[in-house]
Specification:
The protein is an all-beta fold and 104 residues long. It is 0% helix and 49% strand. It has no helices and 8 strands. Strands 1, 2, 3, 4, 5, 6, 7 and 8 form an 8-stranded mixed sheet that branches.
Length: 104
């Protein structure tokens, strides 16, 4: 089962999440720049989405990404992650699965 399921071609909505430490506590995103990435299953070298995500609450580690019109136009499984970077530091969330289904 996938972590997130969306309909093919849908856009204009937010995917949201939280970055946590290994113990489950919120990772403080203060001063970090966020990048949202999505890869087709089996193709890690060329992300289909490589765009900026927004910090919702830095101290709570929450983020959001506004899905754009051509982000997920193919019905298949993707892996998504958020990369947080700042001077001398880079943190990446675990990979989540996103399944794009055919619209009814």
């Amino acid at each position: 089962m996938s972590d997130v399921i969306i309909q093919r071609g849908d856009y204009g909505f937010y995917l949201t999440g939280a970055v946590t430490n290994e113990d489950g506590s919120a990772f403080d995103l203060t001063d970090y720049t966020l990048t949202f990435k999505a890869w087709e299953e089996g193709n890690w070298e060329h992300p289909v989405v490589d765009s900026t995500a927004e910090v919702v609450s830095a101290t709570q580690g929450t983020w959001q990404y506004l899905v754009k019109e051509n982000d997920f136009i193919t019905a298949k499984k993707f892996y998504i992650a958020v990369r947080a970077t700042k001077e001398n530091a880079q943190e990446t969330t675990r990979n989540y699965t996103l399944e794009v289904k055919e619209s009814p």
